[in-house]
Design a protein that fits this description.
It contains one helix and seven strands. It is an alpha+beta fold. Strand 2 and strand 3 form a beta hairpin. The protein is elongated, with a radius of gyration of 26 Å.
């Protein structure tokens, strides 16, 4: 009767052989176990005055951890990825000359990115400070 060490060694050798064989038959089989482990937010931005929102900044913040990821709006669109699954999250949109917009979007999950369409409010006109004479 073989010793337990011998049986264990034989099983490990057989497993290694099967794994190597599977890799040769199905290229990339080892990679199949890896998948997406983060969430994302994407969306569109429009300004109420019709101006181009390009250059605006979108910040996505995990309220539980304080983790923040930022992206720039280009051609009225943004895509923020690399976010932890869970939340709750808030999204803040900022642009010089416009009021900041903040939305609480709740929890993010794996799979399809969260879709968020934002409209900037009215443009803020700031008068120059008057000097006291």
């Amino acid at each position: 009767m073989p010793s337990p060490r011998g049986v264990r060694g034989a099983i490990l050798a057989l497993m290694a052989l099967c794994s190597a064989r599977a890799e040769s038959v199905i290229p990339g089989a080892a990679v199949l176990a890896q998948g997406v482990t983060t969430a994302a937010v994407r969306g569109t931005v429009r300004m109420s005055d019709g101006h181009d929102p390009s250059g605006a900044r979108v910040s996505v913040r995990n309220s539980s951890t304080g983790f923040v990821v930022e992206a720039e709006v280009r051609n009225g669109r943004f895509f923020v990825q690399g976010l932890e699954v869970g939340g709750p999250y808030s999204v803040t949109l900022r642009r010089i000359g416009a009021r900041a917009e903040r939305r609480d979007i709740g929890f993010l999950s794996l799979g399809e990115p969260y879709q968020l369409d934002l409209d900037f409010g009215e443009v803020v006109a700031v008068a120059p400070a008057e000097k006291d004479a």
